Amino acid sequence: MADSKHMKRLKEILGAAADLNAASALLDWDMRTYMPPGSMESRSFQLASLEEAVHEKMTSRELGSLLRKLEGEIGKLDPDSDEYRLVKKVGRDYDREVKTPPSWVRRNAQAVARADTAWGKARAAADFRIFAPHLQNLLELKLEYISFFEPAEHPYDILLDRFDEGMSCAVLNRLFNRLKKDQGAIIRKALAQEKPDASFLKRKYPASKQLALTRRVLTRMGYDWNCGRQDRSVHPFTTSFGLYDVRITTKVVDGNPFSALFSSIHEGGHALYEQGIDKKYARTPFADGASFSIHESQSRLWENLVGRSPEFWAFWFPAVRKMFPGNLETVSPEEFLAALNVPEASPIRTEADELTYNMHIILRFQLEKSLIEGKMKVTELADAWNAGMKELLGIEVRNDVEGVLQDIHWAMGEFGYFPSYALGNVISAQLWDAALKQEPSIPDSIAHGNYAPLREWLRTHVHRFGAKYNTAEILARATGSPELDAGPYLNMLKEKYC
Length: 498
Prior knowledge:
This protein is an all-alpha fold.
């Protein structure tokens, strides 16, 4: 079967599509890092042409014919074999993409590129009204996209499925209602406690040294610099141009000297996932994460369960004290760790502590769902955002930059993405529990600056499979159960903050 002419041709088509996607990703990376601001108009056409070319290739009559022939050939194969899984995955993607007109793909790509520029201008002016017309256009495009498919239990489910196969509003409503209740109670108790002294974090920490620290930590984590690099961007992200080129970005935040470090650890978790995928899957749809929620579980696991742990800082605090002489000489390791982990209601999601983070996601989910349902207008979004932050975290939002304009996802047209972050938090704790049961020495290794035991456990149970398996299947293989379980996550928060 692996040598069949139909399978060889399928892989040729998939490889060419992967190359076009890599070119598009490279243009997008450049747009968010080094591209001159006056280049946006031409870049929007370039991205649109590439996305349209990929769409045409992945919805071609030839591909449809190949899939029909291969469906007849794979009947005798092991359903867990790469070939069987590949045909099924491509077939599922084909059925979805063939329903999406090429004209919509081009219009959407152009709208996203222009919205990105408008979002940047709106942030500079702290004025949501500059971005609102572009968001309205993107929302209308998403509603049009939903109309291409058979009605789901909820229209938002169609968007969720793009990021996490089978995910639904029904599942999210149950999970988020539990988190609002149980995690909300932990938050209220923790925020009522006396805050530790964190004044030493307000001292001067040169950006160059902050970035030098991120490189040292990423190297220890196992990030392959020969097949990647780190740059700075307005919004940190990870992007892959194939399994041999996985890049990350970070952001230095004034007044928050370890934001760049946690950002880099977070993006490093994503990058380790991509770099850990079995190279035999290069230039195929398997050269990706199982889902966005599994991907986010990797970044959140490294950022919070590793990067904010006592074991992590047992190794790194002496080094950090030397890097920033005078700032931490009178600060004990315990005081430093307490300051880094102090729970504080913040208006900014990317700066939120692990305890309050999910409330940001729940708010965005509620807002997106209301927009899709037609219960809210784009022009009402900023006020609804501010009211939601007040309700969930008691925060008064001062301006649109720390409110409705803070995330780039809507400018990218990514409705349905945000829930992946909260799902990733829940899954990270499930995976962490499973890893410690099999490898109890992991915390001690982390305390000695050795991340290989954890990294290799993740590589064995999650990374190497890429997108061969979906969320439930990865969970089943790694933890023994395919079910999402908020229990380990809530228990971890209770133990740490209560």
